[in-house]
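Help!! Second protein's tokens look totally different from the first
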Amino acid sequence: MKILCIGRNYAEHIAELQNETPDAPVIFAKPDTALLQRNQPFFLPDFSQDIHHEIELVLRICKNGKNIDEKFAPTYFDAIGLGIDFTARDLQSKLKGKGLPWELAKGFDGSAPISQEFKPVTDFPDLKNIDFRLEVNGEVRQQGNSSLMLHDFNKIISYISQFITLKMGDLIFTGTPSGVGQVKVGDQLTGFIGEEKLLNLAVK
């Protein structure tokens, strides 16, 4: 199983980080050791003083494929869940400033919590109209809708598969809306799709 992630997929998030809008999806990966499941707590690492939350819709790949045409992409994922792409923003900025890869800022242990439940695709009447949000200590911090993605699910799957073979069980984080911010010890992070709570974890 691999974890593939899309960066810069919501215009307002691009603006808040003052990044350039990419022509194609920005792809990066997290190792399987980044996965955090069953609402286990997230422990702040000692190498960063500025860990940010980034809530995302996550696709679960259900069969193997490469060079997938966009029109066939819907048959390659069967469920949608939530994930948080924890980012060591200070480390990322330092690495980016030197023109170096920033995997260490994204792929550290526990940096990819996912919801225990993934909802079947058939539960969604419109995949281009999925509301989701992140609450921190009961306050809404991030709110998004799949309609606001620069590259939709089908485009993401098709694009990735031109370079990387997708396999059953792979997870794809599809990008985060604006509102990212720092987490601190004692925070309680709760993620929702619509009004259904799917993710709930403590920061320690």
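Here's the second one for comparison:
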Amino acid sequence: MDSRQIAQSRPWLAVGQEIADLLGRIDADAFARLVQAFDDPDQRWFFSGQGRSGLVAQMGAMRFMHLGRTVHFVGEASAPSIRRGDALLIVSGSGETPVSTGFARIAKAEGAKVVTLTHKPAGTLAGIADVTLHVPVGESKQFGGSLFEQSCLILLDSVVLGLAKQLPDAHRLMLQRHTNLQ
């Protein structure tokens, strides 16, 4: 069965194949730099993105919170101001979204580290960031750029998985944080 037939009869396989193909093109050294950016378990992290990228950033922030990290989503009423020593992760496909580039500039001016996941490695945001993970989105059959957001969530989950492996009893601790059970 060729890819067109799969897409017609089993669209979930076509989506999965696109994601697998993209993840196979991720630069391993760049991914290692992304993971290394999270080395300090005491560092405060701020996550941001606009639109669907923002939803992915929110899901990523929650996963890092489940690891016991101090995480905020930019724009939430309870989020403090970013300061020196903090870090900001921005998910932005275009790397040009004015709100996102503005947040990155503010973070840098305050002395915070800036990390981005983008499919425009030569964009404005990548030029500001200390760490950039290029998410190499090419042609996709999916609706409206979904491949970028899906891949970013999987990449952030992969960082969390790597960090969780370093923690004794990470899954039990996550369940405690998630359910507030002691």
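Reply: Different proteins will give different token patterns, so don't panic. The beta strands are 45-49, 71-73, 87-91, 113-118, 131-134.
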